[in-house]
Amino acid sequence: MRQSPLYICRRNRECPSRHPVEPSAKYADPLCTILFSIIVIITTVQLFRESLAILLNAVPLSLSLRTLHCELANLDGVRSVHHLNVWQHTTQQRVMMVHLVTDYRSDRNEILQAATKLVSGPRYNVWHSTIQLEQASA
Ligand SMILES: [Zn+2]
User: In this protein, which residues make up the domain named Cation efflux protein cytoplasmic (predicted)?
Assistant: First the structure.
């Protein structure tokens, strides 16, 4: 039975004629592997973070939830804000849900338009918003 040359080389560690290796080049392969691994890690960390934030429905890093809460609460006719949630649906689409408690005398359509204009503007860039208006008791 004839054995393959590879098997023979594994058994007989000294086969310089079939696989000549330069002693100075024996670190080239692991160094290239490490170098390319570092390049891949560096170039994919941002994508990985964005993907993880989308999967976890996290608040987008570029958005201040506290500032948005204050700006919504400062709209004319809004008494308070609760249940404010903002998350990234895709890398381009941001989604928001909020409850606004309004004065009983205020124009609810104006509040809705003002809130929609605020969140869909360039500052917050919300692609889809669900705004629930709740009328405060007198
Ligand atoms: Zn509510």
Answer: 71-135
- Digit-coded pLDDT (tens) for 51-92: 998 999 999 988 999 999 999 999 999 999 999 999 999 888
Alpha helices in 56-134 (DSSP H): 65-73, 108-120
90 CA to centre of ligand 1 in angstroms: 26
Query: From ligand 1's centre to the CA of 96, what distance in Å?
Result: 14
Please state the domain extents for the chain: 5-55, 65-135
Does domain 65-135 match CATH 3.30.70.260? no
Kindly write down the DSSP assignment for every residue of 58-76, as one continuous string. PPPTT--HHHHHHHHHTST
